[in-house]
Every structure is written in C-alpha cells, then in structure tokens.
Amino acid sequence: MVTGKDSVEEAKKNAAREACNIVSKKISSNTILGLGTGSTIKYFIDECREFIEEVKGAVVSSYDTLYYMLERELDIPIYDPLSIKKIDIYVDGADEVSTTLDLVKGRGAALLREKYLALRSSTRVYVVDYTKYTGLEYLYKKPIPVEVIPFALPIVLESVRELGLFTPVLRHGIKKDGPIVTDNGNFIVDLKPIKPIEDPFEIDRKLRLIHGVVETGIFPSRELVDVVVVGYSDHVDILEKKSIE
Ligand code: 5RP
C-alpha cells in the first residue's frame, strides 16, 4: 500500500496524467498553452511532453517553470506573455480547493503571473492532489498569499489588521535572510484566515483595494476556474464548474 508522502506524490502523478488526457483532446498545432508553477505542473510537463511539443507555443508563469522546461529541453517556443493576447488552455496547480471550486494559490510565490495567465485563458484546468481538496464550501485552511510592493509593506500590514479577517505574516526566505522576493521584485504577505472565507470573490476585491497590494492568491471560481482534477493514489476525480452551478 502507498502511504504518506509517497501517496501524495502518486496522487499528483495520477492527476497530472488525467490532466494530460483532458488537455490532449483540446490542443492543435495552433494552440497557445499556459503553464503554471509548482511540483504538480512539473509532473504534468513530464507526463504530457509528447502533446505539449505539438502546440504552437507556451507561456509560463515563473522562472521556475521556464528553467524546468529549458532543463528538460522541451522542443517548443516559449513566448513572452505580453506578446500573447489569448491563451487557449491554462494548466496550473493549487494549494486549497473548496467544493465551490474557489482556489487558494501562491505557495510558490508565482500568483501574480499565474492570475494574469488565467485571466487571459479560454479554459483553465487545475491539477491537485487529494490533500488540497478540503470538502468545505469555503476557503479557510491555507493562508492567502498577497503580493505587495515592498515600499508599501507597513500600510498593507496595518490595513489587513484593520479588516479583522486575517493575521498577516511576511514570508521569509529559507536559504535567504529576510523576506522572499518574487519574480516581479515584490514581497509576499501570507494572510492566515481568522474565520472562513465565504465570499472569496468579494474578499479578493477588498484585499486588492488596499494600497500596495498588487494581487492576491484567491482564484474565484466564477472568473478563473473551469476544471479541477483531484488525484488520489488509486483514482482521479474531475470536478467541473458547470456541474456544480
Ligand atoms: C505557485 C502555486 C502552485 O501552483 C501551488 O502552490 C501548488 O504547488 P504544488 O503543485 O507544488 O503543490 O500556486 O505559486
């Protein structure tokens, strides 16, 4: 029997295989593919390499994914996202998934570019292992990362505390002293929810009104999610937004 860490890795691989199955039916030689960031996306890139190399080109959400693709010598043009108006299909991981298919993303600090690519995409597919799917109707389990302009950090911390919904914690590096710096030169503040987030769409907007907040890791189902593939060690569940509306 597969247990613990091995079962999570197995679940990620199963989800990545199924996502590849879904994506392979939707791509052609004209497709622009968007790729997110994280360990599950790396499994997806490996599992789906054959199909990925058939598309017209890819856009990626981080240096991490870019360097992974270069290391793996994928035979595919990688475009600057600014040069692409429409992405046909976007595939990414997530940190928390509710039953309403609202998501928390940004453990890898790539949330700003991830949201940009998701907003530009016609179809958004997220690939997660079973530990991410909470079975709850609201978001609550994982801190919400927000990307913050360094200069504005004090006002962001004060404004978040005033909302009374989160405990804000500046994210520090592990092999670096001080705050981590994103691919965009900003800081990340993790907001630990004090109570369930029952209206993620509204909270996302409220947080983005704070001076100095560039983006949040809340990906509201209603505007940024189409399909979530949840992997287990022995099966996969495909959750589609249409079926829950
Ligand atoms: C990075 C992300 C990742 O997609 C998310 O953290 C999932 O990562 P993993 O697949 O490694 O669990 O949002 O900013």
How would you spell out the order of helices and strands? HEHHEHEEEHEEHEEHEEHEEH
Give the averaged pLDDT, no decimals: 96
CATH architecture of the largest domain: 3-Layer(aba) Sandwich
The distinct ligands, each listed once, are: ribulose-5-phosphate
Largest sheet: 6 strands, mixed
Total individual domains: 2
* Straight-line N-to-C gap: 37 Å
Strand content: 15-25%
DSSP, total strands: 13
Q: What would CATH call the class of the largest domain? A: Alpha Beta
The strand line-up of the biggest sheet is 2-1-3-6-12-13
Structural category is alpha/beta
CATH topology term of the largest domain: Rossmann fold
User: Quick one: overall form?
Assistant: globular
Uncertain runs: none
- Overall radius of gyration: 18 Å
Structure description:
- The protein is α/β, with parallel strands linked by helices and 245 residues long.
- It has two domains: 5-135 and 221-240, Rossmann fold, CATH 3.40.50; 144-217, ACT domain (Alpha-Beta Plaits), CATH 3.30.70.
- The protein is 33% helix and 24% strand.
- The chain has nine helices and 13 strands.
- The protein has helices spanning 4-24, 39-47, 49-52, 63-71, 111-119, 153-163, 200-208, 221-224, 241-244; strands at residues 32-35, 57-60, 87-92, 96-97, 103-104, 121-129, 144-148, 166-170, 187-193, 213-216, 218-219, 227-231, 236-240.
- Strands 2-1-3-6-12-13 form a six-stranded mixed beta sheet.
- Helix 1 (4-24) packs across helix 2.
- It is globular, with a radius of gyration of 18 Å.
- It starts with a helix and ends with a helix.
- The mean pLDDT is 96.
- The protein binds ribulose-5-phosphate.
